[in-house]
Amino acid sequence: MEKSEGGESSEASVSAAVATASQHVAVDFPAKKLARQLDFTVFGGQSPAAVTAVTEQIQPLAMTSGPQIVPVKLTPLPRPQLQPQQHMVLMPMKQTAAPPTHPSIRPPKPESPRARPRQSASELKDGTPKKQKQCNCKHSRCLKLYCECFASGIYCDGCNCNNCHNNVENEPARREAVEATLERNPHAFRPKIASSPHGARDNTEETGDGLVLAKHNKGCHCKKSGCLKKYCECFQANILCSENCKCMDCKNFEGSEERQALFHGDHANNMAYLQQAANAAITGAIGSSGYGSPPVNKKRKGQELFFGLANKDPVHRQGQLLQGNHMKSSVLPSLSSIPGPCVGNTATVGPSKFTYRSLLADLIQPQDLKELCSVLVVYSGEAAKMLADEKDASQKQAEGQTEASLASSTQERVNLKDSGTEKDILDCSSSGDQGEKICMEESSLDGADVSKRRPMSPGTLALMCDESDTMFAASVASPNDLATLSCNTSSQLPRGQGMTETYAEQERIVLTKFRDCLNRLITLGEIKETKCSKMARGADSVDQKDMIGNGFTTTETRNQHDSFNNGVSKSALPQPRTTQLFSAVVATANNNALPKVHRPDENGDVNPKI
DNA sequence: GAGTTTGAAACT
DNA sequence: CAGTTTCAAACTC
């Protein structure tokens, strides 16, 4: 099996192909144009650097450091398997209407960020993909959307491609390709399958008819496959064709006899689609932009051409209409603007009428985010503190004061702070809002230290402001403290040199912790999916209704959550649900021993590759 | 495994 | 934007 990833050892051996491909190059990558104006809803800025930012965000997670997290698949792999509906996290951040999807935050090669439909049959045989998707590109250098890996925003790894440039060694070319691709289609790396925002709400993923709400953003254009073969992207993604499609002779609609015959006759297929749906769910959870097309109920050429308005296919039309209506009713601003947990993107298994929503749907709550923010703020504060102490020590040293006593006292302070930090954070993460508040008060307002502290970075201050709103609003006990904090931090802002360093350090730590958190979040989703898949496979008798909503009851979800957190946190005691997720982050943070973290070369990258 | 079919992506 | 070509996956034999 020829491997083209990595060192490109195979490159030399594919002379002919290379020659051909080389000719391609000029064509494939026209002179780099000016950076497009990218829509970074979140980041706002549209500087020329935006493109670079985007392309970097599309970097395969394989580049990121840290432990390889087992992908969504059931089988642990060295890297994630390529699955269409998974890991939107890798989606480029470029966005227009919808909020940016999540940046790549995890190392392993992810499932397709954009819900790429194609999936090798072998993966679906039993619903449990056995191996990672490997492309077989020969002429595209894996730098075009033809390449599944590239389209998924991941590096080729273990593929059978020739002259592969979708790897670290060819990052510049790859980046150009990404830019070119985005130039052509700003949505190129976004999920093709967008679930209805409707799915954001529980129990609304499915109409009474069991209609699938997820739909292909662009729609398919099938002519001969009847949309019942995997050539059809809708079919492959296990969704019904929608008004977005321009297919002919479509049989991929609710009520289609052909479709039902296809599915109901093959239980294994159902399981496969269960898995597929799970994949879709996770993709949706993490990154589906949900940028659904306008709920305009476009007529599908094929249908009308073949059946005419009289419509010999009332069920289909009805389904379409229902879908359209559904979409229409869900056009309202929804949680889809808030990437993540509560966005119950759905990819429904049509035939079995299961409705799936994000595997993370029950894992994250707004409360969690709040908590995470507080933890990050604490980290930021601690970082500033530590740096300040360090600098003070250095200064005093320079001033010729007694080295021994200074060093020891500083160390003591550091140690004290260390233990305090750990404790604070643990408290924060383990005691919910109350702990959160206390934590903030202790870490931010601990007496004399406040006046000495280095200022927060602008970004951190912004975060603090938000935190202040949410966390301190109710804090009648110390309104003055809060005012003092704000005053202190802001007034100290541009104090001398080294502030930049402090900012950088604060931000680095916060980003690192945030990355850790996201990684764990993904892992949670994966664990959940794994369990889901096991259930799906092992329990034919499972009441299908139980599968609705990720196939887990609340208890199930809770148990998973608990088991996961028990594995990473120090406490096996029941904790408030909202604190469990981030206790994992805290645990990681503690392992990093914050005081040691303030060396840029420690604890991961300064700029976590996301 | 080779050849064919298919439809998305790329190109004109 | 429509038509054509290229491409790689899906499919068939």
Automatic annotation (TrEMBL):
Ranges of Low complexity composition bias in the record:
7-20
What are the Basic and acidic residues biased-composition ranges? Answer: 414-426
One Gene Ontology cellular component annotation?
Answer: nucleus
- Coiled-coil annotation reads none
Q: Which InterPro entries match?
A: CRC, Lin-54_fam, Tesmin/TSO1-like_CXC
The reply on keyword Transferase is no
Top-rank taxon: Eukaryota
The family database entries (Pfam families) matched by this protein are listed as: TCR (PF03638)
Please state what the protein is called: CRC domain-containing protein
**Location of region: Disordered:** 1-20, 94-134, 390-433
GO terms for biological process?
Answer: regulation of DNA-templated transcription
Q: Where is the composition biased (Polar residues)?
A: 395-413
Q: Which family does it belong to?
A: Belongs to the lin-54 family.
- The reply on keyword Zinc is no
Cited PROSITE patterns: CRC (PS51634)
Q: Which UniProt keywords apply?
A: Nucleus
CRC domain sequence ranges? 131-255
The entry's localization annotation reads: Nucleus
